[in-house]
Amino acid sequence: MELEDSIFNALHMYTKVLSVALGYRDLLTRLHSERVQGICREIGMRCGLSNNELNALHIASSFHDIGKIGIPDHILQKPAQFDDGEWETMRRHAEIGEKIMAATELRGSQQAAQVIRHHHEHYNGQGYPDGLSGEDIPICARIISVADSYDAMAVTRSYHHARRHPEIMAVLHQETGEKHDPEIMAFFSEIIESSQYKANRA
Ligand SMILES: [Fe+2]
């Protein structure tokens, strides 16, 4: 997918308000989304994406979790692991996010909506919501998946502690080929070492 600069600017202005709104519901998710966007940009540049593709990646990565606006507080803010029913509800954020992005009806928003829908698909087809696999998953969604997983493990949440960089990389490598695209993981492994988003840099 690609977005020309003029369309990117319009879509970005239009959707920025949504991330501010999400920040009032769930500040941690907003801050996570900003870091994921930054990591995605570094991966996208290393992958050799064009300017217009980077624009599309920026929009989709910034708003990948915007659907959490539609998840009830008792689940969104739950300070413990989810049960099966709660997971099912939480998984709906991908489709809710797709609908929110598509509702802007701006040119390019349908493609961004598809990336948001598919950001939890797994390379081996075991993800959600559609069980897409391999290159059937939009490349921007495959990039978001790696960045999202890294940052989720790098920060402390109410139900888990922050992990250190080597530990996170070990988990990601273990998941490569199953959850993550091997080619994108290879690019990510290169850029993260000198990235400002590397965990526990101190
Ligand atoms: Fe998500």
How would you explain this protein's 3D organization?
The chain has 202 residues and is mainly alpha-helical. It is 61% helix and 0% strand. The chain contains 10 helices and no strands. The protein has helices at 5-25, 27-47, 51-62, 73-76, 84-91, 93-103, 109-117, 139-154, 165-175, 182-192. It starts with a helix and ends in a 10-residue tail after the last helix. Bound molecules: fe (ii) ion.
Layout of strands and helices, then pairs:
Layout: H1 5-25, H2 27-47, H3 51-62, H4 73-76, H5 84-91, H6 93-103, H7 109-117, H8 139-154, H9 165-175, H10 182-192
Helix pairs in contact: 1-2, 1-3, 2-3, 2-8, 2-10, 3-7, 6-7, 8-9
What attributes characterize this protein structure?
globular; single chain; binds fe (ii) ion; 0% strand; Hypothetical protein af1432; mainly alpha
